[in-house]
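Q: Hi! Curious about what Gamma-glutamyl kinase looks like structurally. Here's the sequence.
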Amino acid sequence: MLVFWKESLVLFAVPKTGTTALEGHLAPRAALVLRDPPIVKHTPVYRYRRFLAPYLALAGDKVFDTVAAVRHPVDWLGSWYRYRHRDDLVGHPNSTRGVTFDRFVAEYARGKPAPYAAVGSQARFLRGQEAAIGVTHLFRYEAHDKLVAFLEERLGTRIALDRLNVSPDMPLDLAPSTEARLREKRPEEFAAYEAGVA
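A: Let's find out. The predicted structure is below.
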């Protein structure tokens, strides 16, 4: 998470949405950088509103706009699946080795998945009050150029990004019935994605 005091802007680091590259480029300009440990870096909207927003309010009479990225749920799960397939997780309960992507998605859709599919929720991360999206500006992952353009204008700087924290390419076969089950069991994930600027 990055806080830009002068520009009254907070950039959330939704996991697996390309924000690590933005953080790498913009951190030197930020007034406050929350990057370590991961639970702090990936502070969700509800936790920001409960803890950090009141603290920032004490420092000055400012209203902060908030911005985040959201990824299509199947693509987002694919990134998690690939990330947890890496060599250093082999033998760990979070490893997806020996698990098909279809099984991974089916397990995630259960609601209380096995450790390898327990990756959280973009919808919950972005939730404000009464289950509504809690950020001022939400951009779809595929519209990364629009997010960058927004940040360039708002922060008055050019942004040239390196690709960081990229999961390896691998086939992601998903049965239509499994995707249908995901849509049935996790509709809030698709609603969050639909709320983003395309």
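A: A fun detail: The first helix runs from residue 19 to 26.
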